């Protein structure tokens, strides 16, 4: 499966407003946007014909999954560190 996050950052995502993938990805990450409406408010992408909305929604989903995976890794590390410090099982 091809990830939308791997799309060339300089490629245009929203043609109506001339917004590129990199700008949209940075906006979703930086502002932790959870909806197309929030993305549009922050960087204008999606503010025209709306044909790019499915693409923006896919990016939001992929970034949410990325954050969830990173959170799981961090929880695992914290669990192992505290397990060792307290002498608990790991
Ligand atoms: S292509 Fe994004 S609003 Fe039209």
Describe the protein.
By secondary structure, the protein is mostly helical. It has a single domain, classed as BFD-like [2Fe-2S]-binding domain (Arc Repressor Mutant, subunit A, Orthogonal Bundle), CATH 1.10.10.1100. A two-stranded antiparallel ribbon has the order 1-2. The longest helix is centred in the last third of the chain and has 34 residues. The chain is elongated, with a radius of gyration of 17 Å. The two termini are 34 Å apart. Bound molecules: FE2/S2 (inorganic) cluster. The site of FE2/S2 (inorganic) cluster (FES) has 10 residues, from loops.
Question: Quick recap of the structure?
Answer:
The chain is mainly α and 90 residues long. It is 59% helix and 6% strand. The protein has one domain (9-86): BFD-like [2Fe-2S]-binding domain (Arc Repressor Mutant, subunit A).
Order of helices and strands: EEHHH
Number of strands: 2
**What value does the average pLDDT take?**
89
- Which range best describes the helical content: under 10%, 10-25%, 25-40%, 40-55%, 55-70% or over 70%? 55-70%
The helix-and-strand class reads mainly alpha
* pLDDT < 50 runs, ≥5 residues: none
Query: What count of structural domains?
Result: 1
Top CATH class:
Mainly Alpha
Looking at the structure, the CATH topology is Arc Repressor Mutant, subunit A
Q: Taking Cα atoms only, what radius of gyration do you get, to the nearest Å? A: 17 Å
What is the count of DSSP helices, taking H or I runs of 4+ residues? 3
Name given to the CATH architecture: Orthogonal Bundle
